Amino acid sequence: MSFFRVIMPATIDHLGDFIASLSRWLQQQGLAAEKIGRVQLAVEEALVNIFRYAYRGKPGEVEIRGGIVEDNRFVIEILDSGAPFNVCSLPQPDVKSGLRERKLGGLGVFLIRNMVDELVYRREGDRNVLTMIVAKSNGRFSSSRQKVRAGA
Amino acid sequence: MSFFRVIMPATIDHLGDFIASLSRWLQQQGLAAEKIGRVQLAVEEALVNIFRYAYRGKPGEVEIRGGIVEDNRFVIEILDSGAPFNVCSLPQPDVKSGLRERKLGGLGVFLIRNMVDELVYRREGDRNVLTMIVAKSNGRFSSSRQKVRAGA
Amino acid sequence: MEIDVRKEAQAVVMSLTGRMDAVAAPQFDRTAADLLAQGDRRIIIDFASLEYISSAGLQSILALAKQLEDSQGSVILSNLAGPVREVFDISGFSLIFPIYDRCEDALASL
Amino acid sequence: MEIDVRKEAQAVVMSLTGRMDAVAAPQFDRTAADLLAQGDRRIIIDFASLEYISSAGLQSILALAKQLEDSQGSVILSNLAGPVREVFDISGFSLIFPIYDRCEDALASL
Ligand SMILES: Nc1ncnc2c1ncn2[C@@H]1O[C@H](COP(=O)(O)OP(=O)(O)O)[C@@H](O)[C@H]1O
Ligand SMILES: Nc1ncnc2c1ncn2[C@@H]1O[C@H](COP(=O)(O)OP(=O)(O)O)[C@@H](O)[C@H]1O
Q: What would the pLDDT profile of A103-130 be if each residue is shown by its tens digit?
């Protein structure tokens, strides 16, 4: 069973390094390129929020863990030691209005929800743990994605 | 005081990720491009040996730490949990003979020694720790490099 | 990300290549600010070679469009496909902008 | 690393671009093995666009030269400069190979 872990400083400079390192592991494990792109988007949004809101620019680290369960489901966990925040508690943003009414911002967590099959937040000791689950096979992925989208 | 740390799986696939992540930090800290190239070479040689000899292809992790002391000296530590091995104990390889007599291999640690100002090995708990020190300013770097080279 | 800027008679075309992530978005903001400062009011953003966009990229494009609206200008999109198209669709951004299949079609519309 | 192979009358020129690290070296080995299989015996390695080499790269080049020596062939180097040159100097590899400033000079020597 392959297990992946990367720990790096929580700075925007390392965003690309986090994404590159995780993506390499996902590719080795045979996740399709299209799904790797979705994970990249979810992980970027989560990391940028951690750098910006959880640590507010103060020094800190982020850990990303990867594992596979039931031979088919990728479990990706993102851990930070910043301010406690339950990402899953956010209300649905406005994705309907036109140019004039649209407010800037507020799409990051919404995109995360739409890119993964399951999203779970928990506080573990002094760390935030955000768990993303993505099914490898297409069938399961599409159907559960629909479900998540409807509920988001 | 800026401190850097990266932890990733000890596999050759992540060699480039380790180097990219560390180099980004070194660049942020103002180390000259030429010296970053030397650190990259020393770190690559150390990492490849850890993947190949310390872990012998078995799963494991490598940690690279970076710090700056005395405003001028970069301290880079590479930690692994593989078989104990004092890199500094190796004899000088043959760097004089011609094509026919030259043996393949045996240049990695020699290059490490020549790229850094100081190289120190220690065992810490169940980990190997290889410390590389590189001076930021040119003056000190050249002079101590000469010293190391003569002694290598 | 690379940004190629081409000035045509009817509009300026910004062609994006690579990944428009949170690190790349500020680069788009700077280029867009330069164009506004030069008096350009009609901007076509061509996504033919863009392989990735995150919310930071969306915000940059929305911010540009809002600035242009104040001065009777407009942002038009072309060649939206694949994962980038999907992000525009999910976020409802596809409804905010005029979108053309090809850059030439966008130019012809002006 | 990118490897560009150009067959000239006197020799084959392998031009290396980028970084020849432990991940890239096996790619060099494969290309070199192909050339040997095609009967090429004189190989010029041009380093004009190589910015980095580690011991894995040195070993690959030495291994090729050793194979060629057995069959009366040779490896010649050109455009060694900067950090790559330094690695060749420190390791004594500069003494093992004929080295020319420019690729044309290496070709002219044959
Ligand atoms: N890790 C986090 N820690 C604290 N607050 C967060 C975190 N992630 C998101 N938030 C809050 O949720 C809001 C919505 O986040 P998001 O959907 O990513 O959009 P945006 O960052 O553009 O506002 C943020 O403005 C912030 O207030
Ligand atoms: N981290 C390590 N753990 C165990 N043995 C090592 C380690 N690094 C180097 N060695 C030993 O030292 C030798 C010389 O290493 P090196 O100078 O890198 O050249 P090469 O790897 O080409 O033999 C290796 O062949 C190996 O036996």
A: 999 999 999 999 999 999 999 999 999 9
